[in-house]
Amino acid sequence: MKIIKLLLFAFAFLSATNQVYAQTGPDKILGLYWSPKKDAKIEIYKKGDRYFGKSVWAATPKKDLENPDKLLRQRDLLGVNLLTNFTYNDGEYSGGEVYDPANGKTYSCNISFAGQNLKVRGYVGISLFGRTEIFERIK
Length: 139
What we know:
Blueprint: H1 2-22, E1 31-34, E2 40-47, E3 50-58, E4 81-89, E5 92-100, E6 105-114, E7 117-123, E8 130-135
Antiparallel strand pairs: 1-2, 2-3, 3-4, 4-5, 5-6, 6-7, 7-8
């Protein structure tokens, strides 16, 4: 009886894991990722044909103190969209923006994959003038 339960558990686990990694095409980006400093979890989700990323967990919950809009400085960062309005085209997610709560600035952004992880490149003007951060997929 214990062996049957163990086998059922293993099958369920492998099926769920397989579904996460079996995603192909534009929706393979969907899921949970660690922030670059691993102090927050970001959920990538889809709304219509656009992709967004919001904070869903933080090691130390914080307020949006650096926001240029004084009315937003007391809001919790949990639940805030940090990645907004991306479209998928030929293996890259582009046309979106990334909000950096550390300095309150919003940058143009492109996202691509590095294995199962995301390469998030924020920039001003052209992509050459920017910074790339890695968001590690949470398995």
